[in-house]
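Table S4 entry, Type-4 uracil-DNA glycosylase.
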Amino acid sequence: MATKVERAGAQEWVPAGADVGRLREAAVDCRGCELWEPATQVVFSAGSPTARLALVGEQPGDQEDRRGIPFVGPAGRLLQRAVEEAGVDRADVYVTNAVKHFRFTQKAPGQRRIHASPDVGHVSACRPWLAAELAAVDPDVVVCLGATAAKALLPKDFRVTKDRGQVLRLQTSRGEKTFLGTIHPSAVLRVPEDDRQGAYDGLVADLRTAVAALG
Ligand code: URA
Ligand code: SF4
């Protein structure tokens, strides 16, 4: 029999009207789902709290979990390169994840931790943090990197493969905003080497579209 996991969701840990600094402090205590327990620490955001461009990833990876900073591993390095190539300084960008704790599987303690994608319940449990961040930062353009971030923020029928790179106007608590979904940088890393440059160029092209939407 399938066991139903009860998840309170992050809402009760999210201080109302808080700036990014206060949200970051409060997130340390979050018990909105079970992912906090095996993880090393919560991984909140990085970058400018007044950025006009926000990038939303999936969840911290192994290195992010150890260091407490998003996008510092291989996918993060690729993303940084792509962002710079698209004409933005990473310092002008706010970077965060749909889910703030690393979900992984592990055969035995001390063994390699294998990334496990968060399920839709984790995404919805963690969404109050993302909503509060976007309300505090109030970016003009939000880029969803991969299907998990798209699930958190974009319409239900959005599909990365067919809808990526499209400029969407969506209602938020801070009025109408521009959103765009694209592939996740780790998807680029999974493409066989012969085709990887094309996948990378596609990510850069989508980021350029987002930059152009900044006006
Ligand atoms: N992948 C993500 O989606 N986020 C990170 O912070 C690192 C890797
Ligand atoms: Fe809270 Fe999100 Fe961590 Fe779950 S993943 S405990 S909702 S911060």
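The longest strand covers residues 175-182.
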